[in-house]
Design brief:
alpha/beta, Rossmann fold, 6-stranded mixed beta sheet, 4-stranded antiparallel beta sheet, 11 helices
Length: 276
């Protein structure tokens, strides 16, 4: 009896209910804005990492965030993803989702993905297996090992691997990929979860010039299907993205606009670009 039950539980030919991603409240983009940060302040032992920050990101927008070390860029992303609670202010995802009342897991399920600077992939698994493991589904041992992918899920993997440019490396173990390819794979792992907003932290650190060019094209391709916020220090890369730029300084917005406009702003030159 128990053997029969176990055999049923691990049937590889069955598409289980848990493999269908959890449906969250529909994201309300009726005003065209996907992210609202208003009056956000965050203090650590008396130091204001964020100081009355106001930031608005449109649906489908690619936005670069630049600024000197200590400007508040990482803390801003921590607030958006639920890792840090601000002292004051509001943070909304679309019109109806109050991110400050949601856990980190709930925020991820709602459609916000974050990529850190150092790629975190499963190096002993193939590119395909990394994407499969990243899918928005139950990650318990038995489901992960024995569940069967649906046709829609396989199509999604094919679409993502084409987007990140790793079709020829589909069966390659991630540990054998170049640094740039690992970065693209991790972006692909986030895309498997069908995010509406991607936060990408210094994606080209350590890349070759060729990999940087490919990364710029990838991020520009993603914009439109989802909103993308890129935090970066490499100004040549920021210019190549041809996107609006927000400059943070001492936890507040110092300037916003095109790269050309902010690089000619004397305030920005004084605090950040003077040596560039």
């Amino acid at each position: 009896m128990m053997v029969s039950a176990l055999h049923s539980m691990v049937d590889r030919t069955r598409v289980y209910d848990f493999m269908i991603p959890k449906i969250t409240d529909e994201l309300d983009l009726s005003h065209g804005t996907i992210l609202y940060l208003e009056g956000i302040s965050v203090s650590f032992d008396g130091f204001k990492a964020i100081n009355d920050l106001n930031l608005y990101i449109d649906a489908g927008e690619l936005r670069c965030i630049i600024g000197p070390n200590g400007a508040g860029k990482t803390t801003m992303m921590d607030v958006i993803t639920g890792k840090t609670q601000p002292d004051v202010g509001s943070c909304w995802f679309g019109q109806r989702m109050n991110l400050l009342r949601m856990s980190e897991a709930e925020i991820a399920e709602a459609g916000i993905g974050r990529k850190f600077q150092k790629p975190t992939v499963f190096e002993n698994h193939s590119v395909f297996e990394n994407l499969e493991l990243a899918m928005a589904c139950n990650k318990k041992v038995f489901p992960t090992l024995f569940a069967r992918l649906s046709g829609e899920q396989r199509d999604h993997i094919d679409e993502v691997v084409e987007t990140i440019g790793l079709s020829e490396q589909l069966k390659t173990e991630a540990g054998y990929l170049s640094h740039g390819q690992k970065q693209w794979l991790e972006i692909g792992m986030l895309l498997m979860q069908k995010p509406k907003l991607l936060l990408v932290d210094e994606p080209v650190a350590g890349m070759t010039h060729q990999e940087m060019d490919r990364t710029a094209e990838l991020l520009k391709t993603l914009a439109g299907n989802q909103s993308v916020i890129v935090v970066e220090h490499d100004m040549d890369f920021v210019r190549s993205l041809e996107s609006p730029v927000t400059v943070l300084h001492q936890g507040s917005v110092l300037a916003e606009g095109s790269m050309e406009s902010v690089q000619n702003d004397q305030r920005v030159i004084d605090v950040y670009l003077g040596g560039d």
